[in-house]
Design a protein that fits this description.
This protein is of the alpha/beta class. It has helices at about 5-20, 30-50, 120-125, 140-150, 160-180, 185, 205-215, 230-240, 260-270, 285-295, 310-315, 325-330, 330-345, 355-365; strands at about 65-80, 85-100, 100-110, 200, 220-225, 245-250, 275, 300, 320-325, 345-350, 370-375, 385, 390, 395, 405-410. The structure holds magnesium ion (MG).
Length: about 400
């Protein structure tokens, strides 16, 4: 018998005894009814307290982590163009980590410019022997092992960011599911502080860009425009003609002259632009430092920062950093980078690649409190196998569901 049913039964017996004592069989005295009500209220509060008691998770003896994966082609809703390339799909690899009947989902997304492929991700995953671990809560230790299977590159970063991120995301999802809590709660974050996400208006003719801007009117609070072309201001004016929302711009290393870049940034600021991402090539660190010192808008690093090694190197040259799980290798490293950037007085932005709701929901878990969020990757694909983080009036909506908060679409 459940405790609550037992207590209810006990209350009924107590009330019955009171009735018999008073000699009025068939109906209850006022005192007996009150005793019953008090007893039920007590039972309710005991049941509520029971429900709130922390329950230690106990795995089945001998449970081990298991890893599996599957390549997946993400279909884009619209052709995606950035400075230098355009595409209609992006390859991905979906990862699952099983443990004790629970499954954590992860994802590696490989935009072509980072040099990762489905083959390189699968080769990395094939090296991993997660079956050696019997406690999925030892995230630090498991990820240290995963990182030890990567190669330290000449720039100090670790190789195989997307593959490591996929494992890290799946482990975090599993971690939250075993605890029965969403990750944002495990991290101690307030979902009400989740930021607005920018929505990217892809490069196109001014007419099409104005049209695309009108299409998303009312759904977003910040717009992002890819610049780095000779007609940047024309594109911004086209978006501006259709919306008065704040705009952020990403030059994707497209500007080459620092004085021209500074002039353009002033012109962008006049048009309501709020920040500039990766204005010049990543290796031009002195020029970027010169620009950051003089720019009326904050300058954020994106391509210049893959992992922590880059972040240490560029501090002081940029005002902020765009952290992405696929670059740095997952949530554990992203949270370390977030703390480091804050400690160095830098602003923090969270970005994503073209990804399903799996990886985007993972990044969203650590989004409360960041300065900018660009987590629209899942909105750009037409074959998302997951439902996860939402967007309401442009703001990220974190779900109160365990782990990443995912459902598999039927
Ligand atoms: Mg960028």
């Amino acid at each position: 018998m459940k405790r609550r049913e037992f207590l209810k039964g006990a209350a009924a017996v107590a009330a019955g005894a009171a009735v018999t004592a008073c000699g009025f069989k068939g109906f209850k005295s006022e005192e007996a009814a009150k005793a019953e009500a008090d007893s039920l209220a007590r039972a309710d509060s005991i049941a509520a307290a029971e429900a709130r008691k922390p329950r230690a998770y106990q795995s089945l003896p001998g449970s081990r982590l298991s890893l599996s994966w599957e390549p997946y082609e993400l279909q884009l809703r619209h052709t995606f163009s950035v400075s230098g390339s355009s595409r209609n799909s992006t390859p991905g690899v979906q990862v699952r980590i099983g443990y004790d009947g629970f499954v954590g989902y992860g994802e590696a997304s490989m935009p072509p410019y980072l040099g990762h492929t489905v083959a390189s991700v699968q080769a990395f995953l094939s090296k991993l022997r997660l079956g050696r671990f019997g406690d999925p809560f030892q995230l630090e230790e498991i990820m240290a092992y995963v990182d030890s299977c990567a190669v330290r590159l000449s720039d100090g970063n670790l190789s195989d960011g997307p593959a490591r991120a996929a494992v890290d995301i799946a482990l975090h999802d599993l971690f939250g599911k075993l605890l029965g809590q969403p990750l944002w709660r495990v991290f101690g974050l307030n979902p009400a502080k989740a930021p607005a996400t920018s929505f990217t208006i892809g490069m196109d003719t001014p007419e099409v860009m104005a049209e695309k801007t009108r299409e998303v009117a009312g759904r977003f609070k910040v717009l992002k425009v890819k610049v780095g072309q000779p007609n940047d201001l024309e594109m911004i004016d086209a978006v501006r003609s259709a919306s008065s929302l704040p705009i952020v711009v990403d030059a994707n290393q497209g500007w080459t002259d620092r004085i021209a870049a500074l002039n353009e940034i002033y012109a962008l600021a006049d048009r309501g632009v709020k920040m500039v991402e990766q204005p010049m090539p990543r290796e031009r660190i002195d020029d970027i430092a010169w620009l950051s010192e003089r720019s009326p808008l904050p300058i954020f690093a994106d391509e210049a920062v893959q992992g922590m090694a880059d972040l240490r190197r560029i501090k002081g040259a940029y005002n902020g950093v765009n952290i992405k799980l696929m670059k740095c290798g997952g949530l554990l490293e992203a949270r370390r980078m977030q703390s480091y950037a804050r400690a160095e007085g830098m602003k923090v932005m969270l970005g994503c690649m073209t990804e399903t709701s799996c990886a985007v929901s993972a990044a969203a878990q650590i989004s409360p409190g960041v300065d900018f969020a660009d987590l629209d990757g899942n909105l750009l694909i037409s074959n998302d196998p997951f439902e996860g983080v939402g967007v309401s009036e442009g703001k990220i909506v974190l779900r109160n569901l365990p782990g990443l908060g995912l459902n598999i679409r039927k």
